[in-house]
Amino acid sequence: MAAGSGHDAEQETTRQSARKSLHGQDAEEEMEEEMEEWNVYAFKTSVWDLALVIGMEDQGIMGSIFVTMLLALNALMQIFLCLVINDSLTIPLIDDGTTQAMKDWRTYSGHAWDYVDKLSFEPLARRICRNDDSVPMSSSVSGTLGDIAGYLPSAEDRANESPALGHLLPVALAGMQGELMCIMALIIWITNVMVVISEAIQFSRAVWYLEPGNMEGWKGLTKITLTSEGRELTSMGRLRKCYMAGILSLQLLVAFNLAITGIFYLSYTISVGDLIMNAAALQVVLELDETFYDALAPFQARALIESFKPIARPPLRSWKGLDAWPAVRLELCV
Hints:
Shape: elongated
Distance between the termini: 71 Å
Low-confidence stretches: 26-37
Number of strands: 6
Number of helices: 14
Radius of gyration: 31 Å
Helix content: 55-70%
């Protein structure tokens, strides 16, 4: 009896081990299926993605011409705005020249007898430093000091202010609120740009990962298969791949240019209120391609690009669950 009981217990242990092994295999298969679902690129509502349908047979010649014009308009406007931001909005408002000019003003005008108040005998420098709005001159000096006080307020500046809910920032952080606001604005801006760059890179990897089509003319390059879930891009010829590589390279060029000029633009903004508005304005320029898509894209082109199923892209290499791209993003933010 003891031997039989031992044999039954051994068989039960073996069955439990087999069930655990099968359950582990099923879990691994489910995880692999989920990873395959993540390793795809879903087309975005963007003019850059819409460029894919140019020249397709389902699009039509007039639709292709209009999408080409829309793509050119978007690219020209974004490039022009990048150049304007660089030439007009990345100039430091306070530099060594401003510091020297303030010293000269204090020496030659701030304490000059001609500008002393005849009733209180208070020098001009003192009236400017205590934010006397009745001073009829030196408005540029007063404005510069006001910007500095708003960006890096002192204890005296805080005492002269009365926020709606009172001062909520700790004293240790209040003196550098402008610097902290600038850092947060830069982090928000850089992460938004990196989202666009990441999507462009994923799109390019997915396009290049497609099987090459035949080379019997432009219409035969791209093969589209109709399925119950929508249209599926099963192959793409080398000519169209090179064309899309050029489009995506232009998108990356615009994104990188906007990123650099936007960083300088925000860094040289010395008004805390303007930091928020400038970051929002940069976001409008960055998302101009989506705005043009929603407002001007032809219905047939939109229906075509939105009917495509997500296309597979090469899986990213990871090390112990972490791939390289998030680490690169964090490093750029720091």
